[in-house]
Write a structure and sequence with these properties.
The structure is a homodimer of 103-residue chains.
Chain A: H1 13-20, H2 23-34, E1 40-41, H3 42-45, H4 53-65, E2 69-74, E3 77-82, H5 84-90, H6 94-101
Antiparallel strand pairs in A: 1-3, 2-3
Chain A binds a DNA duplex (30 and 30 nucleotides) through residues 1, 22, 41-43, 51-62, 73, 75-78.
Chain lengths: 103, 103
DNA sequence: TCGTTAGTTCACTATAATTGAACTATTGAA
DNA sequence: TTCAATAGTTCAATTATAGTGAACTAACGA
Protein backbone atom coordinates (compact mmCIF):
# COMPACT_ATOMS: atom_id res chain seq x y z
CA UNK A 1 0.00 0.00 0.00
CA UNK A 2 1.56 3.28 -1.05
CA UNK A 3 0.23 6.41 0.56
CA UNK A 4 0.32 9.72 -1.25
CA UNK A 5 1.66 12.63 0.74
CA UNK A 6 1.77 16.18 -0.63
CA UNK A 7 5.15 17.87 -0.62
CA UNK A 8 5.78 20.63 1.88
CA UNK A 9 5.10 23.47 -0.51
CA UNK A 10 1.77 21.96 -1.52
CA UNK A 11 0.30 22.34 1.96
CA UNK A 12 -2.51 24.89 1.85
CA UNK A 13 -3.78 26.96 4.74
CA UNK A 14 -7.38 26.09 3.89
CA UNK A 15 -6.53 22.40 3.80
CA UNK A 16 -4.77 22.54 7.14
CA UNK A 17 -7.53 24.55 8.83
CA UNK A 18 -10.19 22.30 7.38
CA UNK A 19 -8.37 19.18 8.54
CA UNK A 20 -7.90 20.60 12.03
CA UNK A 21 -11.48 21.84 12.30
CA UNK A 22 -12.72 18.33 13.08
CA UNK A 23 -12.47 17.37 16.77
CA UNK A 24 -11.47 13.78 16.08
CA UNK A 25 -8.68 14.81 13.76
CA UNK A 26 -7.52 17.50 16.15
CA UNK A 27 -7.26 14.90 18.90
CA UNK A 28 -5.26 12.64 16.63
CA UNK A 29 -2.91 15.50 15.80
CA UNK A 30 -2.58 16.37 19.48
CA UNK A 31 -1.68 12.79 20.30
CA UNK A 32 0.96 12.70 17.60
CA UNK A 33 2.26 16.10 18.69
CA UNK A 34 2.66 15.03 22.27
CA UNK A 35 4.34 11.80 21.20
CA UNK A 36 6.55 13.66 18.79
CA UNK A 37 9.22 11.54 17.24
CA UNK A 38 7.27 8.40 17.87
CA UNK A 39 5.08 6.91 15.23
CA UNK A 40 1.67 5.77 16.31
CA UNK A 41 -0.73 3.25 14.92
CA UNK A 42 -4.20 4.44 14.02
CA UNK A 43 -5.77 2.66 16.97
CA UNK A 44 -3.20 4.19 19.29
CA UNK A 45 -3.61 7.75 18.04
CA UNK A 46 -7.37 7.57 17.80
CA UNK A 47 -9.31 8.57 20.86
CA UNK A 48 -12.69 7.05 19.96
CA UNK A 49 -12.81 3.26 20.08
CA UNK A 50 -16.52 3.27 19.33
CA UNK A 51 -16.04 5.03 16.01
CA UNK A 52 -16.31 2.89 12.89
CA UNK A 53 -12.85 1.99 11.69
CA UNK A 54 -13.72 3.05 8.18
CA UNK A 55 -14.52 6.50 9.55
CA UNK A 56 -11.23 6.57 11.38
CA UNK A 57 -9.40 5.43 8.28
CA UNK A 58 -11.03 8.29 6.42
CA UNK A 59 -9.89 10.80 9.05
CA UNK A 60 -6.32 9.57 8.68
CA UNK A 61 -6.63 9.85 4.91
CA UNK A 62 -7.82 13.45 5.23
CA UNK A 63 -4.92 14.28 7.56
CA UNK A 64 -2.52 12.64 5.10
CA UNK A 65 -3.92 14.48 2.10
CA UNK A 66 -3.80 17.78 3.98
CA UNK A 67 -0.11 17.08 4.56
CA UNK A 68 -0.35 16.94 8.33
CA UNK A 69 0.79 13.38 8.86
CA UNK A 70 3.05 10.89 7.18
CA UNK A 71 2.02 7.25 7.22
CA UNK A 72 4.11 4.18 6.51
CA UNK A 73 3.42 0.50 6.78
CA UNK A 74 5.17 -1.14 9.67
CA UNK A 75 4.32 -4.75 9.99
CA UNK A 76 0.64 -5.18 10.37
CA UNK A 77 0.22 -1.59 11.50
CA UNK A 78 0.16 1.71 9.68
CA UNK A 79 2.31 4.09 11.66
CA UNK A 80 1.78 7.82 11.42
CA UNK A 81 3.99 10.75 12.37
CA UNK A 82 3.08 14.40 12.54
CA UNK A 83 4.90 16.36 9.83
CA UNK A 84 5.82 19.04 12.32
CA UNK A 85 8.81 20.43 10.44
CA UNK A 86 6.89 20.74 7.19
CA UNK A 87 3.89 22.36 8.84
CA UNK A 88 6.04 24.77 10.83
CA UNK A 89 8.09 25.67 7.78
CA UNK A 90 5.00 26.46 5.76
CA UNK A 91 2.82 27.97 8.50
CA UNK A 92 5.04 29.08 11.38
CA UNK A 93 3.34 29.04 14.75
CA UNK A 94 -0.01 27.79 13.49
CA UNK A 95 0.06 24.25 14.77
CA UNK A 96 1.36 25.17 18.18
CA UNK A 97 -1.21 27.94 18.61
CA UNK A 98 -4.15 25.82 17.57
CA UNK A 99 -3.12 23.00 19.87
CA UNK A 100 -2.65 25.47 22.71
CA UNK A 101 -6.04 27.09 22.09
CA UNK A 102 -7.74 23.72 21.91
CA UNK A 103 -6.64 22.68 25.38
CA UNK B 1 -34.97 40.01 9.90
CA UNK B 2 -33.29 39.00 13.12
CA UNK B 3 -29.94 37.32 12.86
CA UNK B 4 -28.78 34.85 15.46
CA UNK B 5 -25.28 35.37 16.76
CA UNK B 6 -23.66 33.03 19.27
CA UNK B 7 -22.37 34.63 22.43
CA UNK B 8 -18.64 34.98 22.89
CA UNK B 9 -18.25 31.92 25.05
CA UNK B 10 -20.10 29.77 22.54
CA UNK B 11 -17.46 30.27 19.85
CA UNK B 12 -15.78 26.96 19.16
CA UNK B 13 -12.32 26.45 17.75
CA UNK B 14 -13.61 23.91 15.27
CA UNK B 15 -16.31 26.28 14.10
CA UNK B 16 -13.84 29.12 13.66
CA UNK B 17 -11.29 26.99 11.82
CA UNK B 18 -13.95 25.48 9.62
CA UNK B 19 -15.35 28.90 8.76
CA UNK B 20 -11.90 30.25 7.95
CA UNK B 21 -10.90 27.22 5.90
CA UNK B 22 -12.90 28.46 2.93
CA UNK B 23 -11.04 30.94 0.69
CA UNK B 24 -14.08 33.11 0.02
CA UNK B 25 -14.90 33.42 3.69
CA UNK B 26 -11.28 34.10 4.55
CA UNK B 27 -11.24 36.96 2.05
CA UNK B 28 -14.43 38.37 3.54
CA UNK B 29 -12.89 38.21 7.01
CA UNK B 30 -9.71 39.83 5.73
CA UNK B 31 -11.71 42.65 4.20
CA UNK B 32 -13.59 43.24 7.42
CA UNK B 33 -10.36 43.02 9.40
CA UNK B 34 -8.64 45.62 7.29
CA UNK B 35 -11.69 47.89 7.47
CA UNK B 36 -11.99 47.34 11.17
CA UNK B 37 -14.56 49.53 12.86
CA UNK B 38 -16.43 50.02 9.64
CA UNK B 39 -19.36 47.88 8.78
CA UNK B 40 -19.51 46.54 5.28
CA UNK B 41 -22.35 45.40 3.12
CA UNK B 42 -22.16 41.87 1.73
CA UNK B 43 -21.46 43.12 -1.78
CA UNK B 44 -18.70 45.34 -0.45
CA UNK B 45 -17.00 42.69 1.62
CA UNK B 46 -17.33 40.01 -0.99
CA UNK B 47 -14.49 39.70 -3.43
CA UNK B 48 -16.26 37.64 -6.09
CA UNK B 49 -18.95 39.49 -8.02
CA UNK B 50 -19.52 36.48 -10.26
CA UNK B 51 -20.52 34.27 -7.35
CA UNK B 52 -24.23 33.53 -6.94
CA UNK B 53 -25.67 35.81 -4.30
CA UNK B 54 -27.34 32.88 -2.58
CA UNK B 55 -23.90 31.31 -2.21
CA UNK B 56 -22.54 34.55 -0.81
CA UNK B 57 -25.48 34.84 1.54
CA UNK B 58 -24.71 31.33 2.73
CA UNK B 59 -21.07 32.23 3.38
CA UNK B 60 -22.17 35.17 5.50
CA UNK B 61 -24.57 32.93 7.38
CA UNK B 62 -21.76 30.47 8.13
CA UNK B 63 -19.51 33.30 9.34
CA UNK B 64 -22.34 34.58 11.51
CA UNK B 65 -23.12 31.18 12.99
CA UNK B 66 -19.43 30.58 13.69
CA UNK B 67 -19.48 33.84 15.64
CA UNK B 68 -16.96 35.62 13.42
CA UNK B 69 -19.15 38.46 12.24
CA UNK B 70 -22.06 40.44 13.49
CA UNK B 71 -24.71 41.52 11.01
CA UNK B 72 -27.38 44.16 11.37
CA UNK B 73 -29.88 45.58 8.99
CA UNK B 74 -29.06 49.09 7.91
CA UNK B 75 -31.52 50.41 5.42
CA UNK B 76 -31.59 48.19 2.42
CA UNK B 77 -28.20 46.73 3.25
CA UNK B 78 -27.04 44.14 5.76
CA UNK B 79 -23.93 45.50 7.36
CA UNK B 80 -21.39 43.16 8.89
CA UNK B 81 -18.57 43.78 11.35
CA UNK B 82 -15.84 41.41 12.38
CA UNK B 83 -16.25 40.38 16.02
CA UNK B 84 -12.57 40.95 16.64
CA UNK B 85 -12.80 41.49 20.40
CA UNK B 86 -14.87 38.35 20.92
CA UNK B 87 -12.62 36.23 18.72
CA UNK B 88 -9.46 37.57 20.36
CA UNK B 89 -10.89 37.08 23.83
CA UNK B 90 -11.77 33.49 23.11
CA UNK B 91 -8.83 32.52 20.90
CA UNK B 92 -5.99 35.01 21.46
CA UNK B 93 -3.72 35.46 18.48
CA UNK B 94 -5.55 33.06 16.20
CA UNK B 95 -7.22 35.49 13.84
CA UNK B 96 -4.17 37.63 13.39
CA UNK B 97 -1.93 34.63 12.74
CA UNK B 98 -4.24 33.06 10.20
CA UNK B 99 -4.65 36.32 8.33
CA UNK B 100 -0.90 36.83 8.36
CA UNK B 101 -0.21 33.30 7.12
CA UNK B 102 -2.82 33.65 4.39
CA UNK B 103 -1.14 36.64 2.81
C1' DT C 1 -47.47 52.87 -6.22
C1' DC C 2 -43.91 51.05 -8.85
C1' DG C 3 -39.29 49.81 -9.81
C1' DT C 4 -34.68 49.06 -7.87
C1' DT C 5 -31.55 47.33 -4.58
C1' DA C 6 -29.75 43.97 -1.28
C1' DG C 7 -30.10 40.11 0.53
C1' DT C 8 -32.74 35.73 2.23
C1' DT C 9 -35.19 31.41 1.59
C1' DC C 10 -36.51 27.50 -1.13
C1' DA C 11 -35.84 23.46 -4.01
C1' DC C 12 -32.70 21.04 -6.39
C1' DT C 13 -28.26 19.11 -7.50
C1' DA C 14 -23.55 17.93 -6.31
C1' DT C 15 -20.04 16.96 -3.26
C1' DA C 16 -18.32 15.18 1.32
C1' DA C 17 -18.79 12.36 5.75
C1' DT C 18 -20.40 8.02 8.31
C1' DT C 19 -21.07 3.34 8.46
C1' DG C 20 -21.23 -1.92 7.94
C1' DA C 21 -19.50 -5.37 5.07
C1' DA C 22 -16.14 -7.31 2.33
C1' DC C 23 -11.34 -7.28 1.21
C1' DT C 24 -5.94 -7.18 1.75
C1' DA C 25 -1.69 -7.79 3.94
C1' DT C 26 1.08 -9.19 7.80
C1' DT C 27 1.99 -11.86 11.76
C1' DG C 28 1.98 -15.71 14.92
C1' DA C 29 0.78 -20.24 16.20
C1' DA C 30 -0.53 -25.16 15.35
C1' DT D 1 1.87 -24.38 5.26
C1' DT D 2 -2.25 -23.50 6.72
C1' DC D 3 -5.36 -21.06 9.68
C1' DA D 4 -6.95 -17.51 12.63
C1' DA D 5 -6.23 -12.87 14.36
C1' DT D 6 -4.94 -8.13 13.68
C1' DA D 7 -4.94 -3.60 11.44
C1' DG D 8 -6.37 -1.16 8.35
C1' DT D 9 -8.36 -0.07 3.41
C1' DT D 10 -11.95 -0.05 -0.08
C1' DC D 11 -16.71 -0.39 -1.53
C1' DA D 12 -21.57 0.73 -1.59
C1' DA D 13 -25.20 2.87 0.54
C1' DT D 14 -27.09 6.43 3.40
C1' DT D 15 -26.89 10.94 5.32
C1' DA D 16 -25.34 15.67 5.72
C1' DT D 17 -23.57 19.76 3.86
C1' DA D 18 -22.28 23.24 -0.01
C1' DG D 19 -23.50 25.69 -4.53
C1' DT D 20 -26.99 27.53 -7.51
C1' DG D 21 -31.10 29.74 -9.92
C1' DA D 22 -35.62 31.24 -9.00
C1' DA D 23 -38.86 33.19 -6.19
C1' DC D 24 -39.49 36.02 -2.24
C1' DT D 25 -39.03 40.05 1.29
C1' DA D 26 -37.95 44.46 3.04
C1' DA D 27 -36.37 49.21 2.47
C1' DC D 28 -35.72 53.05 -0.28
C1' DG D 29 -36.48 56.61 -3.93
C1' DA D 30 -38.89 58.66 -7.83
Amino acid sequence: MNFVHPSREDLTLGGVLSALSDPTRLRIVRFLYENRGNCASCAEAAPCPKMAKSTLSNHFRILREAGLIHTVKHGVEHRSVLRKEDIDARFPGLLELILKLAE
